[in-house]
Amino acid sequence: MKIHRLYVDKNGESHFEDVGVMFTDSTRAGRLSARLPATGIIFREVPPDYDLDWHPAPRRQYIINLDAGVQLTASDGETRRIGAGEVILVEDTWGKGHLSKALDGKLRHCIFVTLD
After folding, report:
1. Any idea what the CATH number is for the domain that residue 50 is in?
2. What pTM did the predictor assign?
3. Quick check: 94 pLDDT over 90?
4. Average pLDDT in the chain
5. How far is it, in rounded angstroms, from Cα 52 to Cα 89?
6. Which of 1, 24, 30, 72 is such that its CA lies 20 to 30 A from the CA of 48?
7. Which domain, by its residues, includes 19?
């Protein structure tokens, strides 16, 4: 299982990397990762014409897309399409930030799992 991570370097530039989920336990119901700390959960509905200019993330958080995707562009120029069912960890809370744009003109529902 892969998670997209969007982070900021010491110069304020944002970058992507892929992070693998480490499974530490196996049960009859499947493999599990270790429990990770979180501070809250936010449900969000994003309009189909969403197109947000450069901005840093408001906090460290996982974003889980439920039914549509988003296109994100890091300040280093890399663009990724984060589809329905995919998870991204945003940690670029300062610096130039990133661009966010709706995909395919679809309404998107997502869950934010806050870490700060």
Report:
1. 2.60.120.10
2. 0.93
3. yes
4. 97
5. 18
6. 1
7. 2-114
